[in-house]
Amino acid sequence: xxxxxxxxxxxxxxxxxxxxxxxxxxxxxxxxxxxxxxxxxxxxxxxxxxxxxxxxxxxxxxxxxxxxxxxxxxxxxxxxxxxxxxxxxxxxxxxxxxxxxxxxxxxxxxxxxxxxxxxxxxxxxxxxxxxxxxxxxxxxxxxxxxxxxxxxxxxxxxxxxxxxxxxxxxxxxxxxxxxxxxxxxxxxxxxxxxxxxxxxxxxxxxx
Length: 207
Prior knowledge:
By secondary structure, this protein is mainly alpha-helical. The protein has one domain (15-206). Helix content is 68%, strand content 0%. The protein contains 10 helices and no strands. It has helices at residues 4-11, 18-26, 44-57, 66-81, 91-94, 99-118, 126-129, 132-151, 160-175, 178-206.
């Protein structure tokens, strides 16, 4: 028969780390992007956005579908920005399987990045992040970053920083840490500025 002490100990057991939950969720066989909407409930927007943008932010195999994933990310950010409660994905994007190569190469890198951030994150300004003005401001910024990655010249590597900004901001949203979200926004702004600056130089050279 459990004692009061046992009950108290059970209540003090910390919840599973976000990285552990993501790892367990993404190891499912035949996992599609549409399946992700059921994994973390209120965090589904940030989780799906994180998975969609990781191939652009990190050196992982994409199977030539980076632009498709970025288009999906635009759909996700638009819904997040305007306060949609249930995430909807286009059928073509929702049916896209992550695939064995993605899960073997990308998932470990994704989990490693999340675990690194977990060492420093805690809930800071979480209430502010949940407010409608903050949500819209963050959402519009993420849309700009995804567009920056999508429009970056191919094979230039310029899509990395805007994509990384989205990834970091999504991690911040998942853990409710406003400081990490702000860091992601700063990275994204720098990345888009770099895309615009170098894109302008390239245009002037070939125009």
